[in-house]
């Protein structure tokens, strides 16, 4: 059987952007930003997207295009059959199962808000409405609707399902977010929201660096769909003539722009409606836009339907990219039919979704802390693989189809993915585990001194060095 490939360059870009742009931008980004100090978070997040996200995305593309396989098959075949690497690929597959579980619950909220906009049910009590519907049996029912829609598209196959959905959604979401944000700027109090979001707050960043760091890393990876194998799988359908670097840059820029745009909408809204930024939690986007639509009466109903429906489309093009991973694994590695694989995976996810929809603490743990940790660990492993198992083969793959600019930085890129980013990601993991255990890390960046953070940094360097020593083989660069 020949493997499907993307029909056009736009097909891949659209699908990969479709995976990246989703609830992570519109729902999770405002939540994380609000919870972690606004502009301080934004600053760190943007730096991480640039320095970790873009090179990391390229790493995933290299693995995918080189192997033309799902993450498990990819790591196994490129490491000449290593069981350990195959097991690491499985770790990524399991991560996507967990992600899509809570993602379905949030998708369900969007389904519900689309319907509720028609009747205006949340008008007049945006906050109370969200608290009433977020968890429980009804939330579970809506999550199942979202999950069923995801499974239906995945069942339809890579090209037909994914390319079509994404083409409609992308321009619509940009226009809607921009138009709504522009309207928001005209409201009293919007300036304070913009200030919270955009005026760099270095003092806050220094004082809370170690609290913000894992969230900023996790959010950057989440929004770029990194560390789960999604981008590996998508790139596995890619032809050799493409510049991976150009694609990675395009995807990162488009995706980041949409997240930043969502912030430009949410924060001015929260402030202008006198809503407390911090208290919204996972409901920040719902509470803020619901207040806006309510203030617009009948027009608001119409806008509400359009807004929630468009975000729903964006959510679907992301959730299909998650469900696709375990399905592609079963189809490629175990010869299961696409129909059976999709049905089986959907049933598994339904169990996870039930746990998240019925318990706010399970939801909170998964959607916040656990996601940050799992994706950080996932990307770290993938990049060590690129740097030290693929080595010169990674460079060959990177160069295929690349333009002059991308070729000029191939060496530094490999240094980033093989050494610097793994050290940084391990440092992030160690500090977040240490702070969860109550170990003092130093109160601010300059407090690195002799505090726990210095120990974490040394540990990250040592673990990376050990990993490199263990993984290095002929073909590795040093
Ligand atoms: N990037 C998606 C979003 O921002 O909504 C979420 C996501 C999709 C994460 C696919 C991970 C993944 F593998």
Describe the structure.
It is a multi-pass membrane protein. By secondary structure, the chain is an all-alpha fold. The chain has a single domain, classed as Orthogonal Bundle (Hydantoin permease). The protein is 80% helix and 0% strand. Helix 7 packs across helix 15 and helix 17 (360-390) runs antiparallel to helix 20 (410-436).
Summarize the structure.
Pfam families: SNF. The protein has 478 residues and is mainly α.
Number of helical segments with 4 or more residues: 21
Overall tally of domains: 1
* CATH architecture group name: Orthogonal Bundle
> What would CATH call the class?
Mainly Alpha
CATH 4th-level superfamily: Hydantoin permease
Number of strands: 0
Helix content: over 70%
Distance between the termini: 39 Å
Q: Enter the CATH topology name.
A: Hydantoin permease
Query: What radius of gyration results from the CA coordinates?
Result: 22 Å
**SSE string:** HHHHHHHHHHHHHHHHHHHHH
Biggest sheet layout: none
Bound molecules: 4-fluoro-L-phenylalanine
- SS-derived structural category: mainly alpha
Q: Quick check: average pLDDT?
A: 90
Strand content: under 5%
Tell me, what's the shape? Answer: globular
Uncertain spans, ≥5 residues at pLDDT below 50? Answer: none
Mind sketching the topology for me?
Layout (H helix, E strand, L loop, with lengths): L8 H12 L2 H13 L3 H29 L3 H8 L4 H37 L6 H8 L3 H20 L1 H28 L4 H9 L3 H6 L1 H15 L6 H6 L8 H29 L11 H12 L1 H38 L3 H21 L1 H31 L1 H8 L4 H5 L1 H27 L15 H20 L7
The structure holds 4-fluoro-L-phenylalanine (PFF).
